[in-house]
Amino acid sequence: MKMKKISVYTLLLATVLASSCQKDKLDPRPASDMPDYMVFETKERIASQYNGLYTVLKHGRFLGGKFQIANEVRGEDYLNERANNVTLQATWKRIVGNEVQEVKEIWSQGYLAINNANLFIDGMAAKGNSVVGDSLGKIYVAEAKFVRAISYFSLLQLFARPYWDGNGSKPGLILYTEGHKDKGNYSKARSTTAETYAQILKDLNEAEAALPKVNAGSTAAVTHANYYTVVALKMRVYLHMGQYDKVVAEGAKLVSAAAPFTSPGGHALVPEIAKVFQLPYTTSESIFSLPFTSTVGDYPGTQTQLGYYFTPKAPPLQGNGEYSLLPTGIISDKGWKDGDARRKLLTAVGSKYYMTKYAVPSPFTDWAPIIRYAEVLLNLAEAKARLNTGVDAGALELLNAVRHRSDPTVTFTAATLTTQQALIDAILNEKHIELLGEGFRSMEVTRTGATFAARATYVAVPPTSSAYIWPISSDELVYNKLCVDNQ
User: Fold this and answer.
1) Residue 229 is inside which H or E element, if any?
2) Which pTM value belongs to this model?
3) Strands laid side by side in the 352-355 sheet
4) Could you tell me where the beta strands, DSSP code E, fall in 279-364?
5) What DSSP designation does 455 have?
6) Which phi-psi region, left, alpha or beta, contains residue 204 (left: φ > 0; alpha: ψ -120 to 50)?
7) 359-411 per-position pLDDT tens digit
8) 449: phi > 0 → left, psi -120 to 50 → alpha, else beta; which?
9) Distance from first CA to last CA of the chain, Å, rounded?
10) Taking the CB of residue 8, how many other CB atoms lie within 10 A of it?
11) Which of 101, 238, 282, 334 is most buried, most CB within 10 Å of its CB?
């Protein structure tokens, strides 16, 4: 967090989150001038701040775009077409430093989302719960904890060594659980990776206990956290910690024991994968997405939009063609057949291919998918495969469910995947194909201890390299003298 800007962030936050207060004819006072007690004085103002938890989270500098783009272009699938430092050329080259724009922006916006959640939780405890009532107050606070948890988890994947390195003993993130609303000295040392994960799981466990089970398919079910959202994220967290038995235990809450795999809330794979990325973005497969509209200020800013980066300039897509797909990347996989429906989410322009999951042109209002049921199934499949020394039949079924949705001509069997490792490799490869362009690639590489593959003119980056994770933002290092950089 950029320490000298905390007061500026707080004023901005009050303006954004309490904007509905401008309609209050009895109190036309600007929202940014409101003292703390007034912000939590009415149900309407509290609801505005509650919705604002997601407004800060979905900013283009964080989970609204740039975080996913950074995780994608660090991998082996993309070719930088523009040589523009503003559009993550340094990340693509894997030569980022403390001063690189995306390092500073993702760190800053991530901690702004965390501080926003902390301020909301503090305000609810001090005043808000008595205004909205205990039942609704618990739901609001639980969602704030989900926002805090997913923010910490996301930052952890770029700025800290993976859990497998020292069993979480390496430096993790700076943990704040109280809001900072005034300019001041908030210097604090980094907790370990294990301690950071412990905070994430604490938030998620408390959120799970308080949130309702909302059936799939509605806007509310997709754009706000509920019980199923939290469980799905817990599966991802435990997978990154290598605690596969816990992935399976959480998966039992979301995935039926036999095909067709569904959740108690009606989550399921949709027959056509393309529908997931089209209006209304609220399919049974969509567990959590960040929504955008064409209203000014309600879509990612310039050069942070997913469609801007990945779609070509050629009409009707009208992206900026920042990154084409490398012919040596996952699109070269021989097992990914031409008839696979996921191939239709790629577009050829001359001799190049572009990823076109985000096809709405400027102002690029495609929702950002954060958690899909396909990921849940593949996470569960991997956990089952890793727990069984043979070829786990349940893992095979889950793997085939995802593949058959897009290509029913391919069936994975124990006769073709004859070892545990062969099955694990097939599941990881399926996830690579299925989640292409959704912000998973870098996280998958570091989670599994793999090497960032060489591509174009750039050499491979092994787990032992200092470039394997990002350095800490220079802003943090300047204003927080207790924070140590990654080595």
Assistant:
1) helix 227-240
2) 0.93
3) 78-80, 323-325, 352-355, 346-349
4) 286-290, 323-325, 346-349, 352-355
5) B
6) alpha
7) 999 999 999 999 999 999 999 999 999 999 999 999 999 999 999 999 999 99
8) left
9) 20
10) 11
11) 238
